[in-house]
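Troubleshooting log. The previous structure file for this entry was overwritten by mistake, so regenerating from the original sequence record. Sequence copied from the archived sheet and checked twice against the printout by T.R.
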Amino acid sequence: MNENQTNTPMEDDGEDMRVTLSLDDGSDVECAILTIFDVNEQDYIALLPLDENGEGNEDGEVYIYRYFEDNDGNPSLENIQDDDEYEAVADRFDELLDEEAFDDME
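Regenerated output below.
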């Protein structure tokens, strides 16, 4: 693991942590928080869009955003505009998935 990249797993209290996103088209989508992780000292969040039954989407689509918290701990998300930044973050998320799959095999 690169020294600038760390994984911050979400606390598991038996319930999935979820957020509701308001999309540009005016609709809302509920998402499960998969993880918050760091790449080059910037936090990112991976969200799994859920269907109307609260299940993960069939195509495995995941939303990834920059993640910030203000001084009071209130979260904020920001789109990733730079293609190179997005590629680095997506690659790191794939590495985390691979690590998770490996851990599950043990």
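Confidence is low (pLDDT under 50) at residues 1-14. Archived copy saved in two places this time.
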